[in-house]
Amino acid sequence: LFIIMGGYLINSFYDFEKDMINQPGKTYFGRLISKKSCLNIYVIVNVFGISAATLINKEILVFSLLLIFSLWIYSHKLRKKALLGEISASLLMISFFVGLSVLNWRIDLTLFLFVTYIFSIDLTREIIKKMISLKGDLIVGEKSIPIIFGIKRSKYIIFSLMLFSLFAILFLLPTIINKPFSYYFILAFIMILTSIYLLHYSKTSNQYKRLNNMYKSLIGLAILSIVLY
After folding, report:
1. 83: left (phi > 0), else alpha (psi -120 to 50), else beta?
2. Residue 19 and residue 24: Cα distance in Å, rounded?
3. Which of 31, 72, 84, 221 shows the greatest Cβ crowding within 10 Å of its Cβ?
4. Per-residue confidence (pLDDT) for residue 156, from 0 to 100
5. 229 vs 189, which has greater pLDDT?
6. What angle do CA 49, 54, 57 make, to 5 degrees?
7. How far apart are CA 53 and CA 59, in angstroms?
8. Model confidence over 13-49: pLDDT tens digits?
């Protein structure tokens, strides 16, 4: 939790200029908190995160240190690069789930399929987010999939990822069909089908924001559903 907080803080720090263009009303730097305070809080939450990791075991401590460094590299360098930025963000997302397998020394087909599914829906959301922030990316000179491939081709990429995530669910369901864990994936299957329909008609920033919110819910519910497994 602390490391995730730190990741969001440092990402917001480096995204300041772009956020001021895309969503000035939701950007708190300079109004409620200074950028210096953001960096101080970033250091504090990471210290708490590392301290908690030392109480678990050495493997999680090493994993946490690598994760903090990776989150910083992503925010500072990788997020500015087309395709690499979106893919690295999704790899960082699944790393939290991989951390669970490191803690428990457990890797099986269910976990592999679950991580594959999480990767596909997070990568979908990352591209949708780039569709929303297209104006800001162009102004600050950042590269993204929508800028490189264009809106139409990017929608095809998003559609392909949505289909991939549906197939991941279909492969995963038989292994968990008798567990409460399966309820999430039945709901997710319906939500992704709905998002495919919405994608077809999405043209404005607000319509892409609606898709983004759906995928935020999918990821949040996926994290909560782990307790059902």
Report:
1. left
2. 6
3. 72
4. 94
5. 189
6. 125
7. 9
8. 776 666 666 665 666 655 667 777 878 888 999 999 9
**Average pLDDT of the segment spanning 48-74:** 88
To which H or E segment does residue 7 belong?
A: helix 2-14
Amino acid letter, 135: K
Residue 37 burial by Cβ neighbours in a 10 Å radius (0-12, 13-18, 19+): exposed
Query: In 133-179, where does DSSP find H-type helix?
Result: 134-140, 145-176
**Locus of tokens 């990822």:** 161
The label of the residue with tokens 């929608």 reads 155
- Cα–Cα distance measured from residue 175 to residue 51, given in angstroms and rounded to the nearest whole number: 37
Report yes or no on whether pTM surpasses 0.70: yes
Tokens of residue 158, six digits: 């998003």
* Nearest alpha carbon to residue 127 among 78, 95, 84: 84
Find which of 43-47, 58-62, 104-108, 201-205 is predicted with most confidence, using mean pLDDT. 43-47
Pair of tokens at residue 149? 């491939």
32 three-state secondary structure: coil
- Angle of helix 109-132 relative to helix 145-176, nearest 10 degrees? 150
Say if residues 211 and 128 touch (Cβ distance below 8 Å). Answer: yes
Average pLDDT for 198-223? 89
- Please list, in sequence order, all residues whose beta carbon lies within 8 angstroms of the beta carbon of residue 28, skipping any fewer than 6 positions away: none
As a whole number of angstroms, the distance between CA 111 and CA 27 comes to 37
Return d(Cα 121, Cα 13) in angstroms, integer: 25
